[in-house]
Design the sequence.
């Protein structure tokens, strides 16, 4: 099998320096479908140098020029939409409908949102006798996970380029084919050479070299809290700016008297989408004791519609499946009641896990505290609203949440949740609203104007 280039530096593809290429596995068939060259620390160094050289010119490019290139990037991605969706299905296992609607269309929309934003953003404002300038931070090292392979890339690269920064991207080792398509789209969009660079490779090799490189001014990372903590410490030691999008254990709270059917339907759709491999998944469902058994019964009925291999895809890798099955076994051992699913693989081939529901989950159990990153949902009982709030806020995470109930009550409850975004009575995802975490779910925000300012320095000139 031909080894595809994974290193894109200074506007050109090159073969990578690391010995072993990455094997890309189709998680639905367990077959190796491609090999991609893995970058070394030397490749990272070359990429950072190219980004440094390109920085002054790109930082000085008028916002209208940056907007035009981002619009061209959006269009180049849209031209490749079918290929992107098919590639996400092949290397992540996402069902085709999800691959098209979410994995492909969302990042196209996000790229477009930054083309619009940069054209109108006030990079210069007046405060009394001062002119306040918003200037690009410099060279950004972006490290992304596999769960939304294109969206995670675009949510960093588009605002960084819009701000006038240059970028070196280290995408996830499991999903380099989608990252290659993105780099091709950047190339076609006509950005000056060196503005965007990519080094496919391993986290502890290429990722670590990027974080530690003195030529990198800012590190933007999405992934696990364990790796994020290490990256934050390294960046802090060098006094680099850092943005961290980490894990979650988000709660969907059904306040007393909530309309159960739509709440359960929407919560499961959220928790099981992308096979539960979402940082913002609503994996804890909190229900008042008087409605608890009815809610669990509704959920058990609804989950039967999530047929593995049809509506729900496999997990990304054998390693992730082992991890998730381990948590299911732990839930049983901890004394939670298995209502649907379980540890037995539903299909003989592919990294599938049955969508699994646990009832009688106590707030201190591991399955109620730790991020599982698979299709596993825990149902917890509460006594009253104060109890619900204590349980909802009672984890180290604070990424997302949902509340269902009478509109005023639900809105008031949402304001008291320690989470970066809360959906009230089924409020829809907004790609221009800030996204990010409280507590150990991260530092900083992505998307929209808040995502842009992460990549900007503030300077004041006094006259
Ligand atoms: P991860 O290890 O945190 O990886 C995220 C990114 O960081 C990948 O590009 C990874 O490279 C890179 N990386 C790993 N170690 C690094 C290091 N020492 N220095 C610099 N970069 C490094 O996450 P994962 O392995 O993909 O998944 C493990 C768990 O993380 C999941 O089970 C889930 O709980 C969590 N996760 C959370 C999110 C989220 O959005 N919050 C997304 C994905 C995963 P490699 O690709 O080579 O590992
Ligand atoms: Mg990893």
Sequence:
């Amino acid at each position: 099998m031909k080894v595809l280039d994974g290193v894109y530096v200074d506007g050109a593809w090159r073969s990578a320096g690391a010995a072993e290429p990455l094997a890309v596995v189709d998680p639905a068939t367990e077959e190796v479908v491609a090999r991609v060259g893995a970058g070394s620390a030397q490749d990272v160094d070359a990429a950072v140098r190219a980004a440094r050289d390109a920085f002054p010119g790109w930082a000085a490019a008028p916002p209208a020029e940056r907007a035009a290139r981002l619009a061209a990037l959006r269009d180049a991605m849209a031209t490749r939409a079918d290929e992107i969706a098919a590639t996400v299905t092949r290397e992540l296992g996402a069902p085709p409908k999800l691959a098209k609607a979410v994995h492909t269309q969302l990042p196209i929309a996000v790229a477009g949102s930054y083309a619009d934003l940069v054209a109108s953003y006030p990079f210069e404002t007046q405060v009394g006798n001062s002119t306040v300038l918003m200037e690009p931070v410099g060279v950004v090292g972006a490290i992304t996970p596999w769960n939304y392979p294109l969206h995670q890339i675009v949510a960093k690269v588009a605002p960084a380029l819009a701000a006038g920064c240059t970028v070196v991207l280290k995408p996830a080792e499991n999903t380099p084919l989608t990252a290659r398509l993105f780099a091709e789209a950047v190339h076609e969009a006509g950005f000056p050479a060196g503005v965007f660079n990519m080094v496919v490779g391993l986290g502890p090799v290429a990722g670590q070299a990027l974080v530690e490189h003195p030529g990198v001014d800012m590190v933007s990372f999405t992934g696990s809290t364990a790796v994020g903590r290490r990256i934050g410490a390294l960046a802090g030691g060098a006094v680099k700016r850092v943005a961290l999008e980490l894990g979650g254990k988000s709660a969907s709270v059904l306040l007393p008297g909530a309309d159960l059917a739509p709440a359960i339907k929407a919560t499961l759709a959220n928790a099981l989408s992308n096979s539960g491999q979402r940082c913002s998944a609503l994996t804890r469902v909190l229900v008042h004791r008087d409605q608890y058994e009815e809610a669990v019964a509704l959920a058990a009925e609804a989950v039967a519609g999530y047929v593995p291999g049809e509506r729900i895809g496999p997990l990304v890798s054998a390693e992730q499946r082992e991890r998730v099955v381990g948590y299911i076994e732990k839930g049983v051992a901890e004394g939670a009641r298995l209502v649907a699913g379980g540890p037995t693989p539903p299909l003989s081939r592919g990294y599938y896990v049955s969508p699994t529901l646990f009832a009688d989950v106590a707030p201190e159990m591991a399955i109620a505290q730790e991020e599982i990153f698979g299709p596993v949902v825990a149902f917890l009982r509460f006594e009253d609203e104060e109890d619900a709030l204590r349980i909802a806020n009672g984890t180290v995470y604070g990424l997302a949440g949902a509340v269902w109930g009478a509109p005023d009550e639900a809105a008031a409850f949402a304001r008291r949740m320690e989470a970066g975004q809360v959906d009230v009575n089924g409020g829809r995802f907004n790609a221009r609203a800030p996204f990010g975490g409280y507590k150990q779910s991260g530092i900083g925000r992505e998307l929209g104007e808040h995502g842009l300012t992460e990549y900007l320095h503030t300077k004041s000139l006094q006259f």
